[in-house]
Amino acid sequence: MSTEATHTPDVVVIGGGTGGYSTALRAAALGLDVVLVERDKVGGTCLHRGCIPSKAMLHAAELVDGIVEARERWGVKATLESVDWPALVATRDDIVARNHKGVEAHLAHAGVRVVRGSARLTGARTVRVESVQADSTLAHADAVHAESARDALDFTARRGIVLATGSRPRTLPGLVPDGRRVVTSDDALFAPGLPGSVLVLGGGAIGAEYASFHRSMGAEVTLVEADDRIVPLEDADVSRHLTRGLRKRGVDVQAGARLLDAEVLENGVRARVRTARGETRTVEAERLLVAVGRAPVTEGLDLAAAGLTTDERGFVVPADWSRLETAVPGIHVVGDLLPPPSLGLAHASFAEGLLVAETLAGLPSAPVDYAAVPRVTYSSPQTASVGLGEAEARARGHEVDVGTMPLTAVAKGMVHGQGGMVKVVAEAGGGQVLGVHLVGPNVSEMIAESQLIVGWDAQPSDVARHVHAHPTLSEAVGEVFLTLAGRGLHQQ
Questions:
Q1: Please, are residues 117 and 129 in contact by the beta-carbon 8 Å criterion?
Q2: Of 109, 466, 470, 490, which residue is the catalytic one?
Q3: pTM
């Protein structure tokens, strides 16, 4: 290996996903000299294998559902001839590619130096990047760019290092993903063609979304969740309404069930499932999709060289959550490497990146308020929540008032016809709003208002004086707050 000169930027960010590139962009905007190391493509899982491609496919699924609804409910004589899978994939890939180019352009414009290679810590402020690819783009640093085809580059960060290496899908013992019959959430949308049947293991947000997508595309879907309800981190009423919505669409939801074993066959997979009633059931499907969570990626980082360790789950735990700084001063962590209360969500990673960048620049920055970070499941129906659920609020010692309203109680909810609900949890006696929970069509676009309500510690009376447009789905939110404030027109 050749001996390289050591370069001394202000900040070295390891990992170019949402947490990493947001840190890099904000730090560069604050005048810091930033190096961003990424061994694959900037944008990470969210852009290339997760959020963006999956939502593109889910939009296509909405269009398919719309054709069916047009014919069966509205008398519009529309027909669905077929789904052109290659054309659908081409559109998805074009959206991903344009977003990728946009991120690259933002980094270049900001003056962030991007190095493509594998990084490992060599000390508390030092990083070695190995297997550096010759097409690395290191803006405004010709001398460094000339070295990009060599074996390694060494960096000493004057202000700090940011760990943002993300996560990978977890799997289960005995299940070896092959990208064809047994797939993870990272490769589910890239498997060949559309299967006629799918067994989805895991009923969290990812599992629910993939179950919803495949059902829209005509597959027979079985969704298996070990917990006693799907989306178990959400309020129980959210889970109940989502289960009802998926079952109405023909998804076989099996909560409280466990996989006993699975066998890969020539044309599919045969699995044995223990149901909530204790019965053993055999499920055969063309594809088995494992969506049982994600694990932090720290392999190859050599955390010990900097004096760092992980917890028993593999997370890098901050010593100071207000700065997301580890026990080693100057080393910060963002994104999926963080344990709870971080949420493993791309938009939370953006907020974490802003916080760390401003901290490294010496600016005051408010800690991330994880209670006010929204959570969305893009299934059909969708769910969107922020803050505490009813059971969680009571478990924390709150006395609460709860307001609910079915979306079908408002005209626009009847128009959409998907059902759903609004649920608000507030401190008893008109106190602050602790949580808002939505299920129904397009509720992902409605949660921003509730995020502000929870984040600003508003009370129902504060919200009740604001007028919601009619007819909209959002007026159901307004009506629940009117009711909690004692002014409801359609009290339950």
A1: yes
A2: 470
A3: 0.93
